[in-house]
Each structure stands twice: as structure tokens, then as C-alpha cells.
Amino acid sequence: MVYLDYAASTPISDSALRVFTESSKRFYGNASSLHDAGSHAKEMLEACRRQFAQFVNGESKGIYFTSGGSESNHLALQSLIRAHSVKGKHLITTSTEHPSVTNTFLLLENEGYHVTWLPVDSTGMIRIKDLEEAITEETILVSIGHANSEIGTIQPLAQIGNIVKEKGILFHSDCVQTFGKVPINVKELGLDSLSISSHKLYGPKGVGACYISPHIRWEPSIPGTSHESGFRQGTVNVPGIAAFTVAAEEMVNNIDRNNNHFLSLRKQLLSELVEENWVVYEGHPTHSLPSIIGLRVKGIEGQYMMLELNGKGYAISTGSACSTGKQAPSKTMISIGRSPDEARELIRISLGVTTTTDEIKGFISDIKIILSIMKSVKT
Ligand SMILES: Cc1ncc(COP(=O)(O)O)c(C=O)c1O
């Protein structure tokens, strides 16, 4: 199987797996226990916290470990918004966020908060003017994902951060697809909080992190929570966090090398496929994650392409999950102005650090075979 779905999940790296196994045996104590086994686990946990703080140029007091990107988004948003609701009830996000962000805002809408869902242009980028016009005296928080997981468009966080900071509004970003692939510096980007997930960067599944500036007030989502300074319930997964830290370090230290690799594979793929007049590139031409390539094969459902490619030994993804037989149109594709039928055509190819030029060559050749069969059937 040639795996081209690294934006969905990655295999654990050798070093992360080694650290996970060793830590599971050495740091098995509950980090909240006061005996020596607990203290050892706590020392390891705090070392990981310090390292994550360095990765984002933040303070270690602001790092909270969670079960993944979804939980980080949910807890960060809830904890911040609830603590600042006396100032106002207006929130701003975009129409192309991950469901963990969208669903949190829908929940808050039901509780009486007013949410502005910023539209995006045909490349998936928000318009700064829309953001400026949406801000009111009542706005307490803006949440804009760093990169879209379906088409890879990267939002201008530093520019957004400047606008938002000037008005004293909190700024959260879902950085699950970008952390370890794009340098993230909370001070330069003006971020008060962000979310990260381990399984997107060769760490174990079920682990994540969240950064909330220690200078910002937040309230525990569930009163009485004691772990992670009240941020999250549940015994902290120290071995998972240690492995996540090692995996993250490998990615953060190799951003340039990996991006050069992704860019050359991306060029190879796009130059061969987009010249096929049935294949359309979706996403921003320049402000895009090199490892995510959104494509649309005209007239063919993404789900069909995914299954055909699976039959030939390739794992890719469609924009969204199948719902009761008929593929649901991708929310991102609808937001960038595609019709529901066009939206269902999206396929996502996402590259990994071990993806080779030969794998991409084979993929191009097999997708061309599928396309030529389609063409002959359709014409
Ligand atoms: C942009 C984005 N945010 C959040 C998540 C959720 O992360 P996790 O699977 O760790 O909950 C994902 C996963 O697909 C994602 O792509």
C-alpha cells in the first residue's frame, strides 16, 4: 500500500515508539501521585511541557496536554470564552474550520453566544476586510485555523493577530495541520492559544497539546477538574506525551528539509496531473501547505476515485466522510464556491516525510489509467 493520507494520520516514528515503550515502563506512576513513582512521571511531564513551550516560543506554564487536537480546540475555546463572557457574547470564526471547532461554536451559539462565520474566497483564504468589519465592542474571541485540512490553504495569522490584538480580542488558532510543518511562534503570530495533535506528526494517537498564554484568564470547562492545572480531566498520559515530544522535536527541527521534499513531490504531481484537462487544483496557488494537495476530477465523485485508487494500492482521502451511501459535499469546497456536485469531487493527497518520487510516479501513472477508462466510458 502506498500511503498518501498523512494529513489524516501518520505512523508513529521509530524514536517516538522507542520512547513510548521505555517511558511506559519507567514513568508509569500517576503524575499526580506524591510518591517517588509519581514524582518521576511528573518530572518527565514537566520536561515535555518545557520543550513544547520552546517549540512555540511560549511559556511552559501555558502548555496543557490533552487527548488530541479535537479536545484541545474544544477545551481551549470553552475555557477562554466562558472566562471572558462578561465582556461580550460575540465570537468570530470561519466557515472552513475542523468540526471540533465548528461544533464548539454551534454549541456556544445554542447557549446564546452570537457567532460570525467568516466566508472565504475561491482559494480558501479569509478576507481581512470581512474580519475587520465583523469585529464589534462585544467581540471576545477570534478563532481561525492555521491551515485547512482539505485543501491546505494557510491563513495570514500574523496579520490577523495584529488586528485582533489592537482591539484587545483573544486569538485562538487550530494549528493541528501546521505545527511541525510551518514555524509557529506565538509572539510573532499574536496568538493567545493554539491546538496541536500528536498523530499528525509521527507521534502516538490519543495525545495532543494546547497552548494558552499564562497571561490570559481561563475557566475550567468542568469545575472541580484537578489534572493539568484544572484544564483537563483524566490521568495524564505521560508515556504518550514523552513520545509526542520526541516526534514533535524531529518535525520542528526538520521543517525546511521536509518542506523542500514535499515541494518537489507536489510539483511532480501537479505538473503531470493538472495538465490533464479533467483535473482541477483546489486551494491557494502559493499560501498552501506543501504536503496537502486538493484536487477535483471533473464529473467523478471523490469517493469513487478513492475506492478505485484503493483497489490499485493507494490510500488517499476524500474531502469528507460518506454519509448513508451518498458522499456528503465537502464543507470547505462549498465555502470556496463549488456546487454540491463539484464539492463531492474533491480528493486529497497528503504527503509524508517518507513518500518517494517513485511512489508519486506510480500514483500518477495509475491515476492516469483510471482517468482514461473514465473518459472512454463518459464519451
Ligand atoms: C485541522 C484539524 N484540526 C483538528 C483535528 C483533530 O485532531 P485529532 O484527530 O487529534 O482530534 C484535525 C484532524 O483531522 C485537523 O485536521
From TrEMBL:
Keyword Glycoprotein recorded: no
Keywords: Pyridoxal phosphate
Residue ranges occupied by any Aminotransferase class V domain in the UniProt entry: 2-361
Named cofactor requirement(s): pyridoxal 5'-phosphate
A Pfam family this chain is assigned to: Aminotran_5
Keyword Nuclease: no
Signal sequence annotation: none
PANTHER family: CYSTEINE DESULFURASE NIFS-RELATED, CYSTEINE DESULFURYLASE FAMILY MEMBER
Protein name: IscS subfamily cysteine desulfurase
Organism of this sequence: Pseudalkalibacillus berkeleyi
